[in-house]
Design a protein that fits this description.
Blueprint: H1 43-56, H2 67-85, H3 96-99, H4 101-120, H5 126-163, H6 167-178, E1 188-189, E2 196-197, H7 200-215
Antiparallel strand pairs: 1-2
Helix pairs in contact: 1-2, 4-5
Protein name: (apollo) hypothetical protein
Length: 219
């Protein structure tokens, strides 16, 4: 080792490294296709969908001798026609995110594109990382503003319903926001089996009676 009384031709080297771990790639899972079949309740949509299917199927090559290949061709074509005529089903809940879905879709897609570029790039470019940070910051800021604005409008509407004494609509709107769970009680038969007990107190009394007889049964 180096010291005051010895010397070596291997001087000490001090280095500083900056390591950046590459994030794991996420597999893109295809979402299940769900058509908006409620549109088929209209006779006009039914006729358009049936006409599109009947006109296009004769032109398909579904006589190749392979059952799997024929089914893939037919099913993919039905999915294509259903997407064009019916469209995909959109879920709607009483939530701030759903009402701003179209605005957020553009920002989310742009941010996801930057993340895909980072996952597929072999070298971590500083400019790309800075772009991703700025995009994430913009996304979080936009979502906070949309959420605050939505809740402010909802609170003003609920306050107006309360001030105008529209209590029925007021509680209906509150139930949409809180989304309470519906609990259903299972009816029980009485001891004789001739009567169905549906009231909560009667059901509890019947269970108490049952366990009392069960635990005090003389062997």
């Amino acid at each position: 080792m180096r010291g005051a009384n010895c010397w070596t031709d291997h001087p000490l080297v001090v280095s500083r490294l900056k390591l950046r771990l590459r994030p794991p790639r996420r597999a893109c899972r295809a979402r299940p296709t769900s058509f908006d079949v409620e549109k088929l309740q209209a006779l006009e949509v039914q006729s358009v969908f049936a006409e599109a299917i009947s006109k296009s199927i004769p032109h398909l090559d579904i006589d190749t001798g392979s059952l799997e290949a024929d089914w893939n061709t037919l099913s993919s074509h039905i999915v294509y026609v259903g997407t064009q005529v019916l469209g995909l089903k959109k879920r709607f809940n009483e939530d701030w995110f759903d009402e701003n879905d179209e605005k957020l879709a553009v920002i989310l897609e742009r941010h996801r594109n930057f993340l895909r570029q980072q996952n597929h790039s072999r070298s971590q470019c500083n400019s790309l990382l800075e772009t991703i940070r700025n995009s994430g910051s913009t996304l979080r800021k936009t979502t906070r503003e949309m959420k605050d604005s939505w809740w402010s409008r909802k609170a003003e509407y609920l306050q107006w319903l309360s001030d105008t004494k529209q209590l029925g609509t007021f509680y209906a709107e509150v139930r949409k926001l809180v989304a309470p769970k519906h609990r259903s009680s299972v009816p029980l038969k009485s001891r004789s089996g001739e009567q169905r007990l549906t009231a909560k107190e009667d059901v509890l009394k019947r269970w108490a009676e049952h366990f009392k007889e069960l635990l005090n049964e003389v062997q």
